[in-house]
Structure formats: C-alpha cells, structure tokens
Design goal:
Elements (H helix, E strand, L loop, with lengths): L6 H9 L7 H12 L5 E2 L10 E3 L4 E6 L1 H4 L14 H24 L3 E6 H6 L1 H17 L5
Parallel strand pairs: 3-4
Antiparallel strand pairs: 1-2, 2-3
Length: 145
C-alpha cells in the first residue's frame, strides 16, 4: 500500500514528533511539582536519558508513548501499513533499548517507573496517585541520597 501523502509532507509530519517535553511529560512534571516533588528532567548521564529523575527518591520515571514504545495490549500500539519491515525493526530496537536501559538503571540502584501515554490520558489522577504512593514507599526504604 502506497503512502497517501507526499514524501515532503510525511517528512514535515515526522519532524514535529519530539522526544522530550511532550504534552504528556509536561502534564506529569507539572503534577509532580505541584505535589512538592522536586526533580531533574532528561538527565543525559543516566542510561536511557530518563524523562524525570527524582534523586531524593532514587527513582526515575519514563513517560512512554504507546505507539513508539509498543505498550503491550494497547490499541495505540499500531503498526503503519506501509514499510512494515522498517517499522517493526524500529519498534523492536526501541523495546530492546527500553529493557536494556531499565536493567542498567536498576543495576545502578535506581527505582524505575514506566508510565504509558494511555494511562495518563485515561486515568491521570489514579496513575499519578500510584506514583506518589510508590515514591513515598521508596523514601521509607531509606533511599535518601
């Protein structure tokens, strides 16, 4: 199946997709800040450049898009109908890298939380309350560094 839009228009569309400071990341960070959590964002010295780093809680948060990171069982994790081999390879690399980065962070002693775009869009309050509970539990474990 051929692409329905021109190569130039597709390139323009793809250039608008950003890897950081997405709407869902901003929403999560605003909530965390409002709740009194202080963090750093997009820390390049940590594996995978986590979206949110909470050093006091020795916790990182990845805010993953369901499409790009292949949220299992999510209807948003579709595969384009053109160039499927290309897309499947790209998605597989993303999933492998996500797993590798999570393992590397855990080996360094970090607690890793992954939240998905669909969770944020559909159940924002519940998702953020779950994170808040996990952060408080992490603090009780004596993880202040």
């Amino acid at each position: 199946m051929a692409d329905r839009i021109s190569k130039e228009k597709r390139s323009w569309n793809m250039s608008r997709i950003h890897g950081k400071d997405t709407c869902i990341e901003l929403k999560v960070r605003q909530w965390l800040f409002h709740e009194g959590f202080r963090f750093r964002k997009n820390v390049r010295t940590l594996p995978g450049t986590p979206d949110v780093v909470l050093p006091k809680y020795k916790t990182v948060i990845f805010v993953n898009g369901c499409f790009w990171h292949r949220h299992p069982g999510c209807k948003e994790a579709t595969t384009p109908q053109t160039r499927t081999d290309y897309w499947n390879e790209k998605f597989e690399r993303n999933v492998v890298n996500d797993k590798k980065h999570k393992e590397e962070l855990q080996a360094l002693g970090w607690n890793v939380i992954v939240i998905w775009e669909c969770e944020i869009n559909k159940h924002f309050t519940e998702t953020m309350e779950r994170i808040k509970t996990e952060l408080k539990k992490q603090l009780k474990k004596g993880s202040t560094y």
